[in-house]
Amino acid sequence: MVILMDVDEPIFMLTKRWVALYNQDSGDNLNWRDVVRWPIEEFVRPDYMVRIFDYLKKPELYEGIEVTPGAQEGIELIRSAGHRIVYTTAGLSPTKFDELIRRGFLPSDRSKAEKDYIVSRDKNLIRGDLLVDDGFHNVVSFPGRAILFDAPHNAQETWKDRAIGWDGVLQLLGLKDKITH
Question: What angle do CA 3, 124, 152 make, to 5 degrees?
């Protein structure tokens, strides 16, 4: 299978990092887990409702970003089962691709890595057998099978194939019995 893998939340804990940068600049104390729906600007101070999106374009956004627990092992297990992972992202940050390489999610050879990295705001235009994404709007519009990666901002949404963390992704892919931790 070709598995289209969203980067932000399934791989990197973007909302946590994004809110931390916002708190640092604004003096607010918003907890990333309190962002229980989109749009995120509903949760920030009024003077940051537009500026909150500027963080997505900052090169330092991905510096030190946490990898989602289980992502590294999950990706390795999916690949070892013979599936291809193609990362799909809205991609506003100029350093996201580099961070995927640095963390070993993509090969260090950039020409090879570029083959498995697609930037698109409309993921239903990308061909693949399965999409794993935290964006409810993406899973709903995807023409094939889609797994909703659970996050605070999508908790109110109902979806048949909802994965609670990477164990959930692997279970929905029939790879749960191969987990070694």
Answer: 75
How sure is the predictor about 26, in pLDDT bands with cuts at 50, 70 and 90?
very high
Categorize the per-residue pLDDT at 113 as very low, low, confident or very high, splitting at 50, 70 and 90. very high
Q: How confident is the model at residue 91 (pLDDT cuts 50, 70, 90)?
A: confident
Same domain for 75 and 121: yes
Query: Both 37 and 74 in a single domain?
Result: no
Whether the link from the prior residue into 39 is cis, omega within 30° of 0, is yes
For 148, the 3-state DSSP assignment is strand
* Structural domain boundaries, residue 100: 2-12+67-178
Structural domain total, the chain = 2
DSSP conformational letter for 12: B
Cα separation of 79 and 95, whole Å? Answer: 24
Check: pTM over 0.90? Answer yes or no. Answer: yes
My answer on whether 7 and 40 are in the same domain is: no
Angle of the 71-80 helix axis to the 165-172 helix axis, nearest 10: 20
Which CATH number is 99's domain given? Answer: 3.40.50.1000
For residue range 119-164, list pLDDT tens digits in order. Answer: 999 999 999 999 999 999 999 999 999 999 999 999 999 999 999 9
